[in-house]
Design goal:
The protein has helices at residues 2-25, 30-54. It is mainly α. Helix 1 (2-25) packs antiparallel against helix 2 (30-54). The longest helix has 25 residues, at 30-54.
Length: 55
């Protein structure tokens, strides 16, 4: 189950990155970009912890 969570997190991270690229074309505020980056870091940390628990 941990591997599925990890893969889902990677997929979500890819989706977030694609969204950031789309938003960057419209020049979003730096605050929104920072908030998205912090969300992504939090999600990746959770995925890493889930992977370690699943081992």
């Amino acid at each position: 189950m941990g591997q599925k969570i990890f893969l889902d997190s990677i997929y979500q991270s890819m989706q977030d990155s694609a969204q950031q690229v789309r938003l960057s074309l419209g020049r979003p505020s730096s605050r929104a970009t920072r908030q998205q980056a912090l969300q992504q870091v939090s999600m990746l940390k959770a995925a890493k912890e889930a992977q370690q628990i699943g081992k």
